[in-house]
Design brief:
The protein is α+β, with helices and mostly antiparallel strands and 355 residues long. The protein is built from ten helices and twelve strands. The strands form three sheets. Strands 1, 6, 7, 8, 9, 10 and 11 form a seven-stranded mixed β-sheet that branches. Strands 2-3-4 form a three-stranded antiparallel β-sheet, with no helix packed on it.
Length: 355
């Protein structure tokens, strides 16, 4: 299963906000039980480094919170329990969800516009959005607006609304603690272990000064996925987390980091260098910069966030404007991105399907 069936029901509009809340509350006893088990197990191991490293490696993949050296929030136990339920959000999950949502929007009379940018937004008395970059000047009108909390033009909405300006400032102050950089490669299938997982986390032996975390996240295409790699080849994406965003680092610095990634993979795949069929560092750098605003960043857990499930509310001081995005439910990782969108859609007063 790529996703929780209860979340599928929410996205398909089968659950109203009250049922959605009750469904989530119904999960709490099991989550808290898992959380207590996690804490006790950690204490039983006496803070043993290998145990902590295994747990941290899993959370590096599943959570958007930087939990290095911190106490685990409740959300950590929930995320760690997903594989036990046969749920793997990362295994094709992001693209599967995106494609599925795009298809649903179009089938319900909506339209997906790519390659355009917003040049003007008005929120009173209704929503008016002017776009450029499409075939002709386009104006969208609506009664509600859901906007990503990571949107670089969020200030367009603030105007003279000082409360919204403060919210925008608060979002800006929660600066990411780690920024992803991905190296894309094509590799001959023969150099990879036969049963390697499509998503893996490798623990590096040494911690590079440029890298915040010592993990390398690997995403590997599977045999027969010919849309990602030709027969006998596999596509491999190796991701690390950096202190600085790739947007701020030079090409030479990122090329050096790319070489460090290859060096770090050598102990795990001794014949990797000989098996590399394709590698384009320049394109990898370009992609990491291009998608940095939409990437899975790592955020510092604020002191008051014990559950790790909700860091910001989707509500804003503008009655018809709502927020969505990873930072709202950073502790729930990819699932939090989906749930934050569902919460915002529910607040518009329309069904999720209509939204």
């Amino acid at each position: 299963k790529l996703v929780d069936e209860s979340i599928q029901e929410e996205v398909q509009g089968k659950g109203d906000p009250l049922k959605r809340t009750l469904r989530r509350l119904g999960r709490l006893p099991n989550i808290i039980g898992n959380y207590i088990s996690l804490i006790l197990r950690n204490e039983e191991m006496g803070g043993d480094d290998p145990f902590r490293e295994v747990i941290d490696a899993q959370l590096a993949l599943l959570s958007y919170l930087d939990l290095t050296g911190r106490h685990y929030p409740i959300s950590a136990a929930y995320l760690l329990s997903l594989p036990w339920q046969g749920i793997y959000l990362t295994s094709g999950g992001r693209m599967a969800w995106t494609d599925w949502l795009h298809k649903g929007i179009v089938q319900n009379g909506g339209e997906v516009l790519n390659g355009c940018s917003v040049i003007r937004v008005e929120t009173k008395p209704g929503i008016i959005v002017d776009l450029e970059g499409v075939e002709s000047p386009t104006t969208l009108r609506s009664t509600n607006l859901i906007v990503s909390s990571q949107w670089e033009k969020l200030d367009l909405l603030s105007g003279d609304n000082k409360r919204f300006q403060r919210l925008s400032h608060r979002l800006g102050t929660v600066s990411p603690s780690a920024h992803p950089f991905s190296l894309h490669m094509g590799i001959r299938e023969s150099v990879l272990p036969e049963k390697i997982s499509p998503v893996s986390v490798l623990v590096r032996e040494e911690k590079d000064s440029d890298m915040v975390m010592k993990w390398i996240l690997l995403e590997i295409s599977q045999p027969g996925e010919l849309t990602r790699a030709p027969q006998g080849k596999r596509s491999v994406t190796a991701s690390v987390f950096l202190h600085e965003s790739p947007l701020k680092l030079t090409d030479d610095e990122l090329k050096e980091i790319s070489a460090g990634i290859i060096d770090s993979l050598d102990p795990f795949f001794p014949f990797l260098r000989e098996g590399i069929d394709y590698i384009n560092v320049e394109k990898s750098i370009s992609f990491s910069r291009q998608f940095q605003e939409a990437a899975s960043l790592k955020y510092h857990a604020r002191g008051g966030v014990f559950s790790g499930t909700t860091t910001f509310s989707p509500l804003t001081s503008l009655p018809n404007v709502y927020l969505t995005g990873a930072i709202l439910k950073a502790g729930l990782g990819f699932e939090g991105e989906i749930l934050s969108g569902l919460d915002a859609a529910g607040l518009t007063g329309a069904s999720t399907k209509q939204a």
